[in-house]
Amino acid sequence: MTCTLILTRHAKSAWDSTAPSDHARPLTSRGRHAATALGDWLRRQGHVPDQVISSPSQRTRETYERMQLSAPAVFVERLYQAHANIIFQVLKEAERPCTMILGHNPSVGSFAMEMTRNAPDHPRFYNYPTGSTLILEFDIPKWSKLERGTGKLVDFVVPGELEAA
After folding, report:
1. What is the average pLDDT value for the chain, to the nearest integer?
2. Architecture of domain 3-12+24-164
3. Distances (CA, A) of 91 to 17, 73, 80, 162
4. With 60 as the cut, is the pLDDT of residue 164 above it?
5. What 8-state DSSP symbol labels residue 15?
6. Within 10 Å of residue 144's Cβ, how many Cβ atoms?
7. Rounded to the nearest 10 degrees, how much is the dihedral formed by the CA atoms of 67, 118, 97, 108?
């Protein structure tokens, strides 16, 4: 059996927002467009999650909404400003074979590097810009058996590539 991880950093957020807190910062217009493009790309590629586990921040919620995924989402406070170890623990608790984790940097980028057996040959992988999405497959029967460094690279994309296409 195989478990598939879709690891996505939220789309571009507004630093100049009048939001009362970092948690409440919304997406920019560019971020909203990128999130829609990412959802379209996931569907075209057949990378459709069975469940989404997301940080509860405004920008991750908006990213999820704009992706228009049919998978239900749970918003987990532990993923907001989480260390990569927290993401690992949250994923080990996942119940569906194709799971999306939607979160923030630097933890999402660090987690991506920890989980992949072979990093993508992509110039943006190591700084994991907003909207970056990594697809990894794990030869495990369920997420509780997850180990670091065992993910087989399936795909990696950044929104700028989708917008140019």
Report:
1. 94
2. 3-Layer(aba) Sandwich (3.40)
3. 31, 13, 14, 27
4. no
5. T
6. 12
7. -50
What confidence tens digit (pLDDT) does each residue in 14-48 have?
877 676 676 678 889 999 999 999 999 999 999 99
Q: Token digits for 20?
A: 């009362």
- b/e code 115-141 from CB counts within 10 Å (16+ = b): bbeeebeeeebeebebbbbbbbebeee
Q: What DSSP letter does each residue of 64-132 carry, written as one string?
A: HHHHT-SS-EEE-GGGTT--HHHHHHHHHT--SSEEEEEE-TTHHHHHHHHHBSS--S-TTTTT--TT-
Structure token pair of residue 97? 């074979």
Q: pTM for the complete prediction?
A: 0.95
Structural tokens at position 162: 């989708």
Q: What's the token pair of residue 101?
A: 């984790």
- Burial class of residue 50, CB neighbours in 10 A (0-12, 13-18, 19+): middle
Question: 15: which 2 tokens?
Answer: 């630093």
Q: What are phi and psi of 122, to 5 degrees?
A: -135, 130
The pLDDT tens digits of the residues spanning 42-74 come to 999 999 999 999 999 999 999 999 999 999 999
pLDDT number for residue 15: 73
